[in-house]
Amino acid sequence: MTRQVGILVYDDVEVLDFAGPFEVFSTASRVAARLAPPGSAAAPFTVVLLAETAAPIRARAGLLVQPHHALAEHPPLDVLVVPGGVHEPVMERPAVIAWLQRQLATTPLVASVCTGAFLLARAGLPDGTEVTTHWEDVANLRRAFPALRVREDVRWVEHPRLAFSAGISAGLDLSLRLVARLEGQALAERAARQMDYAWEQRAPA
């Protein structure tokens, strides 16, 4: 089974917030393909970038990024990753928030990185959901969405259908954790090794 992973991008998205998960899932697929016998099953993940339109977006520091699909025309998702960045303008874009609401209702696994938690909160997380975000934004998230339980000093928080990571590089740790959940610990560890990345596997307390 190949799982479709979609990563939302938008103007001034944090580069590592989306590129880190993209690297993790695509590396996991590459490693799995290398280990598989010839003619065996397809790669475990296909990763695509999604944006409100198919036009290029300008990420943080001016990096130009070409989405694979517009929100209105992407394939069905098995995993959605919502990265952070300059998220405030996106919170006021009704089409994006409505799309996120639909994904929260239909996508089997939805995750945020950094301030992507604000976008999921605006889309309507259930009261009492335990979340996390970048340490610099914890107080703002608590103030804006007091019905959520905002944790700090953890790398990630996960639930059966939702997951949230702390800032920027924590998205790598959460993505590897999701690979482990979906395809096994061994593949996640091999992907981290392939990336030459010291995976922080500390479970939230």
Structure notes:
Strands 5-2-1-6-7-11-10 form a seven-stranded mixed sheet, with helices on both faces. The model has no long low-confidence stretch (mean pLDDT 95). It starts with a strand and ends in an 11-residue tail after the last helix. α1 (15-35) packs parallel to α6, α3 (94-106) crosses α4 and α6 (170-183) runs antiparallel to α7 (185-194). The chain contains seven helices and eleven strands. The chain has helices at 15-35, 88-91, 94-106, 116-124, 138-144, 170-183, 185-194; strands at 3-8, 45-51, 57-58, 64-65, 69-70, 79-82, 109-113, 130-132, 149-151, 156-158, 162-165.
SS-based class: alpha/beta
> What do we call the CATH topology?
Rossmann fold
The named CATH superfamily: Class I glutamine amidotransferase (GATase) domain
Just name the CATH architecture.
Answer: 3-Layer(aba) Sandwich
Stretches where pLDDT is under 50 for at least 5 consecutive residues are none
- Give the helix tally: 7
Mean pLDDT: 95
Across the major sheet, the strand order is 5-2-1-6-7-11-10
Overall outline: globular
Helix content percent band: 25-40%
Describe the main β-sheet briefly.
7 strands, mixed
Portion of residues in beta strands equals 15-25%
Order of helices and strands: EHEEEEEHHEHEHEEEHH
Number of domains: 1
Look at the structure and give the CATH class.
Answer: Alpha Beta
Q: Give a count of the beta strands, DSSP E runs of length 2 or more.
A: 11
Radius of gyration: 16 Å
Question: Between the first and last Cα atoms, what is the distance in angstroms?
Answer: 32 Å
